[in-house]
Amino acid sequence: MEQLPGGRRPRLVSSLGLGQRSCEVTLDEERGGIAWRDPRPPRRGSENCFVPTSEIIAVEETELNKKQRNTGKWQKMAKPHAFTVYYVKKARNHRWRCSDVTFWCVDEHLCNQWIQALKELLEMQKSRPKQLLVYINPYGGKRQGKRIYEQKVAPLFSLASISTDVVITEHANHAKDNLLEVNINKYDGVVCVGGDGMFSEVMHGLIGRMQKDSGIDQNNPKAPLVQCNIRIGIIPAGSTDCICYSTVGISDPVTSALHIIVGDCQPLDVSSVHHNNTFLKYSVSLLGYGFYGDILKDSEKKRWMGPMRYDYSGFKTFLSHHYYEGTISFQPAKHTLGSPRDKDSCRTGCYICKKSEQQLAEQQKDCGLKYEEDEEGWKVIKGKFLAINAVNMSCACPRSPKGLSPAAHLADGSADLILVRKCSRFDFLRYLVRHTNQDDQFDFSFVDVHRVKSFQFTSKLSDDNESSVTDMGKKRFGQFCRDHPACCCNIANSTWNCDGETLDSSAIEVRVHCQLMKLFARGIEENCKDEAACSQSSVEQLL
């Protein structure tokens, strides 16, 4: 053990065996990492590696097999003692894998010293979960949730010494209802195995439980909701995994499991949706009226088609080209630093999210901790809209790598409100195509985007005030319009698509709650252009 000057913690430096060669291995508690390198001059195939303590999964004593011991110079040595370090290996496109390296030496005391030092460092990682509650949706997506968890996720949790209580959901809202009754304080987090619908169910259960225990009335749209400190982990296994993709950068079960193991934490804004002082839903990704609402409503009738139903309903809805008249009122998010039109995407350790949260907290403190809105700050827009979309995140996915709003932030206390006015089919197609390329999707005269912290929408023909003439027209012509997508007539009301679930009311009131939830994630990391150079630099600094 080497004692460092200046009162710094000691570091462990040893010459250990790695395969058939010797490596210089360093463990520095102060800088938080383990590094190993070939002490000989650099040559092709030489290995220089650095792993931060935060990305070490586990360390175990290892028994070298007889085949290894009976080869080469090993035959002349005493019985070697070895240990294996399991760690996160970062691959391309934000994909993580569990890798391992085994070191050996003939000194049993030295081997135990390394194992003990590494385990003590892992014990200092207080953000890591020890006990998890896992909900598995066996019916979502391609019905692979149970298999994905048992084959890919459970072994990793076991390796990291994480205990789990697993619940296989049997019906809709099973997880939500269970979370209202279970002793939630015994768990360090909740994991959902499924798609966005499964996450929404778990989120509603956790938020509802937190407000219930705190005596908060969720039906009051102006009530300051209590933040949920229990993190949610998402193991993607559904038809759509937009939330996982937008917060991690990839929809991959192993990557998500490793983010949970290392104890990552990503705050997340949540929007509450109300109608006439009645709580409807919470939303974290897309709240869409018009085009995306119509797609969802039509696809619900075609669940037998599987994920393909979204493509079919999308094409059908595009051909129908319905527009909807209404009034939207919104309050601009003046506390945020960014803009929907800038190029500052939300990434790991986002400065805009941190600063915006601080400014919003200061504003609320200046107002005496009241949650009252400035009535003079509201703006009103009336018109005919093909789509009204409000997003709390980019809503990126493999088909649309930038998402609906590329510069939307995960935790800045705002939503991007996108208004697509009535236009030709060709112009609307141009707008949709830009979601799949690098062009500015807001650069159209018929598209407006605003960063807001609350908004309200009222249809010209609300559900409660439709005339008998309208009802008669819907009865006579409604079936024709449903069966003939080329019909361009104006339907009275669309449906709100709230994170993949339909809302019954068209008139809604929406409010963004800053960092109400926390995920086992770290946001999308910036790609390192030269990973080998980064690793080399870290090794040199450590050694």
Short descriptors:
543 residues; alpha+beta; 13 helices; 29% strand
How would you describe what is shown here?
With 543 residues, the protein is an alpha+beta fold. It has helices spanning 66-69, 108-123, 145-159, 174-179, 196-214, 242-248, 253-261, 291-299, 308-320, 351-366, 425-433, 468-483, 531-542, and strands at 11-18, 21-28, 33-37, 48-52, 56-62, 81-90, 96-105, 131-136, 163-168, 189-194, 231-236, 266-275, 278-283, 286-290, 324-332, 379-391, 415-421, 447-459, 496-498, 501-503, 508-519. Strand 1 and strand 2 form a beta hairpin. Mean pLDDT is 86; it is low at 466-488, 529-534 and 536-543.
Q: How would you concisely characterize the structure shown here?
A:
This protein has 543 residues and is of the alpha+beta class. It has 13 helices and 21 strands.
- Arithmetic mean pLDDT: 86
As residue ranges, the low-confidence spans are: 466-488, 529-534, 536-543
Q: What gap, in angstroms, lies between the N and C termini?
A: 14 Å
Query: Which class of secondary structure composition applies to the elements?
Result: alpha+beta
Computed over alpha carbons, the radius of gyration is 27 Å
What characteristic shape results from the CA principal axes? elongated
- Helical region count? 13
Task: State the major sheet.
Answer: 10 strands, antiparallel
Percent in strands: 25-35%
Residues in helix, %: 25-40%
The count of DSSP E runs of length 2 or more, i.e. the number of strands, is: 21
